[in-house]
Amino acid sequence: MNYTPEEKAKWDKLIEMIEESLNHSGQRPFFNTFIKPLKLYAVSGDTLYISGDTAFNLNHMKQRYGTMLYSTVPVVFGKRYELEYYPESEIFRMVRPQEESSLNEKYTFENFIVGQSNNLAFATSLAVAQTPGDAYNPLFIYGGVGLGKTHLINAIGNYIQRENPGMKVLLMTSEAMTNALIDGIARKKTSELRDRLRGVDVLMVDDVQFFAKTKATQEEFFHTFNSLYEKKKQIIIASDRPPRELPEIEERLRSRFEWGLTVDIQKPDYETRAAILRQKAEEMGIDVPADVIDYIAQSVNSNIRELEGCLTNLNAHAELMKASISLELAHTALAGRIGQAARAVTPELIIEVVAQQYGIQPEDITGKKRSQNIALPRQIAMYLCRQLTTLSTPSIGAAFGGRDHTTILHGCDKVADAMDADFAFQKRVQELRGFIENS
User: Fold this and answer.
1) Contact present, 203 and 236 (Cβ < 8 Å)
2) Stated pTM of the model
């Protein structure tokens, strides 16, 4: 059971009190939409874990009734609790979290292409693998999507396990750690996760930026970090941004991330891109002429995944056409992906990409329709305009059909809150950002 019968009875009483209050003030419809779907999921320490039907409705609920709920809790429970909210889709998935990600054996130092953009990250990663706990601790690697962070941390783990079979190596994504923690809370067995995390010789956490505002996970990781560090166990962290650019992570954690060495991975230069393409072609067992390698390497400078995607696309096209790979074929097969000048990031571009991804028209986003299938993409586009352009909120509002700056700020705040509450939604917004930046 996630809570005691007494705690459940108090929760039911709390909902009844709020229902009575809202009925009295003529807000019955709002109670049915935002409060009634709330369920007590678990009680642990000084935190109540609460589930709701959707992240979007949870956002509205917190904005409109969050203070009321927070202030009513001590009246009913007899003490103050922190409240953490999760959409039901996340809660149900957390009940049966996947096992922490195991090492991917295909990622090694031997098949990592080294260039000016990543040579420091490669050298420090190899040093850590050769003397874990001694060289650089913690090691914090950051860089954009598809630049090789996951490859490097897996290479470290694979090297250590090969050279030191007795060492315990654990690689987890931040999302897997959060899922495991909440599952432990639900089953009253948080000590199992704690023992697993603190009983290793090397702990690697990928995508640490997704810790966001999950206070319980940050609290657990803070103490795990201290425990491992004091025992001189190796800690490796990967993120899309440096520690100082992770304001959603508690300051005490960010400061610890910087205790050791922080290294970044930049976009690969031309020589590195060409080498990556040659290696990928060899792995795929295909013959790619030098002029085709040059064409792709010159045209694509975003990330390694895009390079590999172009090569895979080209090979598939050649097989379908029953033709040899040539420069002429590359121009035809990859016309939609490369060979065009990068577009400036403007509100119009952002609206176009978001509309396309959500299956609606740009005019829907800038128009007056308020249905859910349009309102959410509109707010995401507003948020991305603030993130990716230097325009003022009135200027952004003008691009959205003449909306005022308060509407823009409100939309941006709703998206930011939803990202904090929902891992999947956060990843979706970051994916859209990637599409826009690489357009």
Assistant:
1) yes
2) 0.57
